[in-house]
Amino acid sequence: MSSVGSQIDRAAPIVEVQGLSIGFAGANGGKPIVVDFDLSIRPGECVALVGESGSGKSITVRSLLNLAGDGARTAAHRFEIKGRDARSFGEADWRKLRGTVTGLVMQDALVSLDPLRTIGQEVAEVISSHRILTDAGAIRDRTLQTLGKVGIPNPADRALQYAHQLSGGLRQRALIASAIAADPDLIVADEPTTSLDVTVQAQVLQVLAERIREGAGLLLISHDLAVVAGIADRVIVMRDGRVVDSGPTRDVLTHPRHPYTRQLIAAVPSGRSRGSRLASARFEPGASDATAVSIVREPLPQRQAAGEVVLEVKEISKSFIAPKAAGRAKSVVLQDISFDVRAAEVVGIVGESGSGKSTCAKIVLGLLHPDDGEVTLLGEPWSSVAEVGRRRLRRKLQYIPQDALSSFDPRYRVRNIIAENLPGADSAHRAPGPDRVAARTGRPECRSSRPRAAIIVRRPASAGVDRAGASG
């Protein structure tokens, strides 16, 4: 065993949980949705929590930070944070811990960041509220240093921007900056690299790895087994609220003991899977663990030949003016962008975070006006007309957003969200009802299915998809 590994083994755990169960009043027939969960994380150690959407990962993490909600019912045989019994903590105790002992990086950055504060204010508040620093100049320097540390370019300018003014990747990095600003002992990260391109993903993982080398613990939730393999010391695999496999990362990923773990690994996309649907694991209700899982890789139906142009983008450009405090400089985001999309065709737009992909999508959707150029839909003017003139065609163009949770009304149930799109559908092409849509999209109560469930009821001529698979 390496000296680093020996030091980890000898160190007292930052968090230790035994027999954690989580339930909600009136839900699941009163039965716990997470049962007998055990966890121990020591300084300088990364533990990864993996499993399909709906397996209980996120609610487990929220419960460990007392953020599961008022209706949550938790119980544990043992629950200690830095040697203190967390079962006896009041809300005042938790407030003192959050930020200095624990730092949280949530998956949906747009929901997690305050829309009324700049990202610089978000990070500075963590530093000042815990009195890490008290001098205003020192707080500002620490804020900019932290923003730069997570790979945000031009931190002095970006610090003056609000969450809605940033790309999804930049928002996620701002959230990570807020989580690490006070140098917490334990970082809890729920899909921290979901919205990031591979270059920035590597940069953010390097930041987290550096914090681990400095002695912080990391609890990582991820669907990306490549990320897990590169950073985690141990892996915990969850299915239906239970731990089904755990151990050192290399052992779990190369010699998995449980059939479910083997099928998760087998379902990872490969270059050889082109031309067929991505593999999915199917589970037989009531079957034993040994026979419960089967891997399915269905062939895709034969694709139709590309048809007429349905969407055309002609030499669009877009610039933004920086905030007054940043000197009111003009920032060119898009310049002379042209492409078209034909019926039965998929066009991908790729680029690093902040390269203008989401801005381009907003112009295509009619949510922003281009400075120059034009967008046409089904051969008719689109970007150059007022919204009242677009209404006739609006249902022909639908959008799957990057931040699904922030795009839905939290007061609506999944069925209401789907049904809301039904009344305007053409009677001759009546869209499927909400129950059929729910069946076709898997589990719409899970993050990864929410975007799909809300869009297909319209059967649009064209759909804009902004990293909709990122959370699944």
TrEMBL record:
Keyword Cell membrane attributed: yes
Keywords assigned: ATP-binding, Cell membrane, Membrane, Nucleotide-binding, Transport
Keyword Nucleotide-binding (UniProt): yes
Localization terms from the record: Cell inner membrane
Gene Ontology CC entries for this record: plasma membrane
Pfam families: ABC_tran, oligo_HPY
InterPro entries documented for this protein: AAA+_ATPase, ABC_Ni/Peptide_Import, ABC_transporter-like_ATP-bd, Oligopep_ABC_C, P-loop_NTPase
Domain annotation ABC transporter: ranges: 17-265
A GO biological-process term: peptide transport
Gene Ontology MF terms in the entry: ATP binding; ATP hydrolysis activity
Region feature (Disordered): 424-451
Domain of life: Bacteria
Bilayer topology term: Peripheral membrane protein
SMART domains assigned: AAA
Membrane spanning residue stretches: none
Function comment: Involved in beta-(1-->2)glucan export. Transmembrane domains (TMD) form a pore in the inner membrane and the ATP-binding domain (NBD) is responsible for energy generation.
Descriptive protein name: ATP-binding cassette domain-containing protein
Annotated source species: Bradyrhizobium barranii subsp. barranii
